[in-house]
Design a protein that fits this description.
Length: 493
């Protein structure tokens, strides 16, 4: 084990930084370097997305959220696993690769060369298709919340181009990167239904909600307007509601317009104001009105799940930060001092629709992100959540472990890849014929700084503490990713 400069710190910042090097290679191969055994009854495809390039021909981007999307596909076929990665050929990616320089401003501060004069009043942003990837309605779609989906070929990952979902999206309609799949939609006779939203922000914010069948057909659409500027990355659903947290922030567009800051750098938390919890009935014909409840300030990127405990009560588990972490325009994101920043922590919010009261309870002090659960429990009372977590019980740090919490017993389980491993979002895949909610596997990508490569690790979700049942070594590293999804389909290779 390498000696660490600070013995209480289970990682070295240098190790963590290397996981953010650009990956220019693309490849497709059967993974042969495997420790352990891949379960033969784990069959289907894991897709994941995240920034693949952190620089454009040597010019660094300001923030990983501005990095061009690169998709990985892992095909599980009766104990064998095929890997493929490919950059999403967005319009902006192609132009910048051709020009050999940054041609667009990024939302999180990436600027074109030439200082603020070169950037002022340029509101054209690049759709980087880097946040999530889903297979729905027979289409593989790379998502980025401020733009339209990019469609890819599920076998080759070749980019087809912008996809407006057969006309569901208008010319300029965006589509968020956090769709939720209702496993048994009551309004559709128990069929699954994809629910997603889009925002139009300004002095007030328009929330559009789309509900789309497994065949890709629009089932329901509604538009609601809420007062004020909103920065909403994720939401949650129950069988009857969509729930949004409008955290108190303000947006000063001036430095953005003048080319001095990215739009995302002009957002500030307002800790003295409260969060508005917006509860929108999913059925536009229910006659029920939108309700707005008030909760404490803070900032949430990701919700784990929500469910209706009874007719008047919604429970929601989310990762909350005391404030929105500022993107410092003068600092390289790789030089971040983790200890100086607040941790995201798992909270349970109890929304009482009758009394309009919100009760909030801290479920765990550990620094966590990327909550996931059994796909059949989305919108229903869930017992388990799985998260990426820091190695230590307290304090902010990179995600190095996988954390499971049993919300019935409050028991916690953890497996850590520290000091050399850094994890991303765990994806839960149920075992065929499973009965227990945690009977399944967790698939997680781990950056191994010791080898400067990434692994796909399979954990038994019932026995997290035992560590990997299989560790699949890739030939090179994949920069830290954002989100992914599982589909039981094995596309012919
Ligand atoms: Co997200």
């Amino acid at each position: 084990m390498q000696t660490l400069s600070n013995p209480t710190q289970p990682y070295s910042i240098k190790d963590w930084q290397r996981g953010y090097e650009s990956q220019r290679q693309e490849a497709a191969y059967w993974i042969e370097n495997i420790e352990g055994t891949v379960p033969t009854d784990l069959n289907g495809t894991l897709f994941r997305n995240g920034p693949g390039l952190l620089d454009i021909h040597g010019q660094p981007i300001q923030h990983p959220f501005d990095g061009d999307g690169m998709v990985c596909a892992f095909t599980f076929d009766r104990g064998r696993v095929h890997f493929r990665n490919r950059h999403v050929r967005t319009e902006g990616f192609l132009k910048e690769q051709q020009m050999g320089q940054i041609c667009y401003r990024g939302v999180f501060g990436t600027a074109k060369p030439g200082g603020w004069l070169a950037n002022a009043f340029d509101f054209q942003i690049k759709n980087i298709a880097n946040t999530n990837i889903i297979y729905w309605g027979d289409k593989l779609l790379a998502l980025w919340e401020a733009g339209q989906p990019y469609r890819l070929d599920p076998t080759t990952l070749k980019t087809y181009g912008i996809d407006r979902l057969d006309g569901i999206l208008g010319d300029k309609d965006t589509f968020a990167a956090h769709p939720r799949i209702d496993p048994h939609c009551e309004m559709d006779g128990g069929d699954p239904c994809l629910v997603n939203f889009a925002l139009d922000v300004g002095l007030s914010t328009q929330i559009r909600i789309y509900e789309i069948s497994p065949q890709g057909k629009l089932k329901r659409k509604q538009v609601q307007t809420i007062p004020g500027f909103a920065f909403i990355h994720d939401f949650a659903i129950t069988p009857h509601y969509c729930i949004f947290f409008q955290n108190p922030i303000s947006f000063n567009p001036l430095p953005f317009a003048l080319g001095m800051r990215g739009a995302g750098e002009c957002i500030r938390s307002n800790p003295k104001e409260s969060t508005r919890v917006v509860v929108i009935p999913r059925d536009p014909n229910s006659g029920e009105s939108v309700r707005v409840l008030e909760a404490d300030a803070g900032f949430i990127f990701h919700h784990g799940n929500a469910f209706e405990r009874d007719q008047d009560t919604i429970i929601m588990d989310s990762i909350a930060y005391p404030t929105l972490q500022q993107v410092d325009p003068n600092q390289d994101f790789r030089e971040v001092n983790f200890e100086a920043l607040d941790s995201g922590q798992l909270w349970r919010f109890t929304l009482n629709l009758q009394s309009q009261q919100v009760n909030q309870e801290l479920l765990s002090v550990r620094c966590v992100e990327f909550p996931t659960l059994h796909p059949d429990r989305v919108g229903r009372n869930h017992r388990y959540l799985y998260l990426g977590a820091a190695h230590n019980q307290q304090g902010n740090a990179p995600l190095q472990s996988i954390f499971k919490i049993d919300l019935e017993t409050r028991k916690q389980q953890l497996y850590s890849f520290a000091p050399k491993g850094f994890v991303g979002e765990p994806i839960f895949v149920p075992k065929p014929g499973s009965i227990e909610e945690d009977e399944g596997w967790l698939l997680v990508m781990v950056y191994d700084a010791a080898q400067h490569r990434s692994d796909l690790v399979i954990l038994d979700a019932q026995k997290i503490e035992q560590g990997a049942i299989a560790c699949l070594h890739l030939r090179y590293h994949i920069p830290y990713g954002l989100h992914g999804s599982w589909t039981p389909v094995c596309f012919p290779l």
